Structures are given as C-alpha cells and as structure tokens.
Sequence to fold (447 residues):
Amino acid sequence: MLAKKSSRLMILVLAVALCLSLFGAAASAEKVHLKYTYWGSPLEKTAQEEMLKDFMEAYPHIEVQPIYIPSDYVTKITAMLAAGDPPDVGQLGEGQVLAWAEEGVVMDITPFMERDPEVSFDSRLPMTWYMYDGGKKTVGTNLAAEIMMMFYNKDIFDEAGVPYPSANADEWTWDDFVETAIALTKDRNGRRPGEAGFDPNNIDTYGVAFGTWWAPILPFVWSNGGDWFDDEGRETLINQPESVEALQKLHDLIYKYHVAPTPTQMQTFPAFNILLQTRKVAMVVDGQWALLDLAKSGFNLGVAPIPKLKEPVCLELGAPNVIFSGTKHPQEAWLLYKWSTSSSKVMPLIQAGLWMPLGMEYYTEPEKINEWLTEGVHPPEYKEAVIDYVLDYGRRAPSYYMRNWEEITSAISQGLSNFWLGKEDAQTAADRVAETVKPLLQGRFDR
Fold:
C-alpha cells in the first residue's frame, strides 16, 4: 500500500514539474524583445541604461537591448533599416525625423494616444511636439525639453559692482544687456570699452560670448520682430529690416563695442564653462544643457533669459524619441516610448541640469517643480529665468517643422561666415543668403 502511495506521489510531482517546465518554456517563448537606440554623453548613456532596467523590471515580459551609437547615428540606423533589422524605439535627429515619418519609416503615434489617456497633447509642453501631414499626425515629442538662455558668473558682477541681469524676461532689455557687457569687459590694464586707452586687442575679460550657429542667433532675430522665413516656410525673410538689424546688433557686440570675442578667437578658447570659471567671460549664451557642466565648475552661477530687443522670445529645441514602423511589437514599443519620454523615469538627468522635463505639471505645480529643481545645480532665480520664461514665451525652433532643415541651416551658416568674421555688413550678407536659401525652401511638414 505504501509503495502505491509513493508511486502516486512521484507521478504527481513529475506532473507538476512538467507543467512548470512547460509554463516556463511558454513564458520564455512569449517574452518580447525590443531594440532601443540612442546617443549622448557618458552621463546620458548611464541614465538611459538605468531607465531601461527600470522598464524591464516593471514589464518583465519585455526585454530591451540598448544600442548606444555615439557617432554617425543616422548612417548606422540607415544600415540597420537596410538590413531588415530596424530599432523598435529610439532617438532620431531633428533634420531626419519628419522626412522619415512621411516615408513611413517611423510611426504616427496619434492612434496610440487615442487609446491611452496617459499621453495627450495637453500633458506636455506644447512646443515640444513634432507634427506632420498638415498637423494631423505626430511622431511624438522631444526626449527632453531644452531652451537657449544666458549663464553668468555672479562673482564677476559682484566685484565690478554691476547688478545681475533681471530674471524677468520682459525686464531684461537689449540696452541693459549692452551696458552690462560694457561694464564687465576690461582690457589687461583694467580699462573698459569707451575709456581712454582701452585696448581692444588685449582684453582680459569679455562681457559676453555667444556661438554663431542658428540656435543662439535666432531668438534675437525673433525678439526684434524678424525671422528667417515666412510663416509658410516658402519665402526668405533673413534680409528684411528687422532680421538684418538684429544680426547687426550682435555683430556690433564683437566689432563696435568689443565686448564679445570674434569667431576666430572662440575657436582657440576652451568651453564656455571654463571661460566663465576662469573669468575670461562674464556672460554666455548657450543651451540649457550646459548647466550640467556649469554647476560643477565651482563658481557662483547665475541664469537669465535671452535679453529682449522688442519682445521676449524663448527658443525651445530638442531631438525626439520615436517608434520605428518596422517594429514587430507595436504595443510593447508604445509602452517603451511612453516610459522613455516620461520625465519621472529620467529624473537624475533632469536634476543634474542636463535636461528639462516634458510634462506640463513640472512647470505649473509647485510640488512637481520642487522634484527637479536641485540646490547646487539650479540657481535660485532659475524658476523665473527659465521655467516662467519657457511657459510664457516658448516658441518651437524651425527644426520642428521646416523641410530641408539641414540644407537650409548649412547654407545660412556658410553664407554668414564672412559677416561673423567682420568682412561684410549684415545687409550684404543677408541679401546673399536670401538668394541662396530661397530655392531650398519647400514649406513646412505641419501645413
């Protein structure tokens, strides 16, 4: 009798073991595999890997392979597509994304949004959406929000007895900015521009420094009532009076007032954070992402909006995350897309100063704002100078909607090169650029 019971028990154990084995095999067979492609700094790489680990813990049936591509990104993604092995979710450059959306390489996510209330057009900063097909479709938003702004060394201001720039975008005017830059510029004998004996060829501290690529320049043009194109993206406006005047004012900072280094000098200078730290420059115009390095530089950092010429304008920019149409698992890819663009999942990068959040609640709700503003990283005036600035005056960069964007910006950069070198005036350069750019204008993706 005992032998029979033992035999039955053994059969039961074997049956349970077989069921568990079959269940495990089925579970393993049902596991979804996704590929996630991205670029970025070492800090971004680490943060995104942590984000993916958290995602896989939350969704154990999904396994994500991170593919880090620090250079030649589009070339390598193109090779993956040609080989029939596309990513499922990943970053994509502004100049490529909407053309690929029209070609069907990346997905329109509006059908997912219609079924999922967690993501809506109202839930994220309105200027972060990439729209196409006449504004009826979207590939989604930036991976994170970014703006162009001003950073400064408060210690230089304090020693010179110069008031800090206003954090209120409507109060920080162009005239105040020029006066401030002059007051903070000094040559190696301590003389300021306009003083007898000032030597513009031997400047010890410049009042301001700025890059001459499109993003630092366009906010000043917009602020003066100008633009590079008309609203339909088919006519050039870069040579119109408001645009030319803004360009000339920036040019004057270098060659008339001698408060900013020339492009040639900038090529020999170290990074902006080093220039501010070593007191070679008092103020810089740069992207918000520069806060990551600036906060570690060991000086008393201040932030301000871009000074206004006529009206305040905040240029917002950033590359998007997308779902690739070749994915075999669209629903799981949607879950990963949502997760990767959720500010709460990449909060370390936001708190460190590299990124800004996408969610509207992080700009409007005090409790949410306090989640990402970090003492020792975000200066006390950051709320007014940056958060209020983007909310009140944010405007999407043309990279969100212009066709041929990379060709256009390349033509503008080349066409203005002699102007920035001081070899010609703004009107001459802008007239030539307008003629060069005109045949490149093919309208907007969202119209």
